[in-house]
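Holo model, iron/sulfur cluster. Inputs:
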Amino acid sequence: MARDERGAVPRLRLCVSDCLLGTRCRYDGGSKPHAAIRELVALPEVEVLRLCPERASRLPVPRPPAERVGERVVLRSGEDVTEAFHAGAEREVARVLAAGCTIAVLKAKSPSCGTGRVYDGTFSGTLRAGWGVAAGSLRDAGVACFSEEDVEAVGAREFVARALESSGSAR
Ligand code: SF4
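Output:
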C-alpha cells in the first residue's frame, strides 16, 4: 500500500451511489451491488459518503421506473417527477459538497445518477447521451463523476491510485 512521506495512508473521500453498496434504495425496493465497488470501498485509502438522490426525493417505494424525457423525468405511468428528482438532487449535492467530496462513483444509466448515458425516455432499454439529474448537478458543481463501469474497467486499486494522483486528495 502506498504511503505518503509521513508514512500515513493517503485518504480519498468518495461519494458512492448507495444502491451499488447493496442498499435497497431503488425505485422497486431493490439494490445493485457490484463487486468492483465492494472492492473499492474496502480499500484502506477510501472514505465513503453514501448518497441516493431518489431516496432524498422522498418519492414512495415501490414506484414505476423513471426515465429522462428531454430535461424532464417521467415515470412509466406517465407521472412527471422532475421536481422531486431535482429536490432530491439538491439535498444530496449539498451533502456531498459539505463533506468535501470531489469524486463520485455513481450508478450508470440511472435518471438520477447516470454519467454521460441515460435511457432515452421510451422505456425500451434504449440509451442516449445524457446525464442523470443529480449526476449533472454534481458535475456542474465541480465533482468528477464516474460510474461503476469506469471502476470495473481499470480495477478498484488502479482507480484509487489515479484519483489520488489527479485530485491531489492525499491528506
Ligand atoms: S438514485 Fe442513484 S443511488 Fe439511488 S437507487 Fe437510483 S441509482 Fe441508486
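The pocket of iron/sulfur cluster is lined by residues 17-19, 25-26, 52-55, 107, 110, 112-113 (CB under 6 Å). The chain has one domain: 12-166.
Archived with the compound record.
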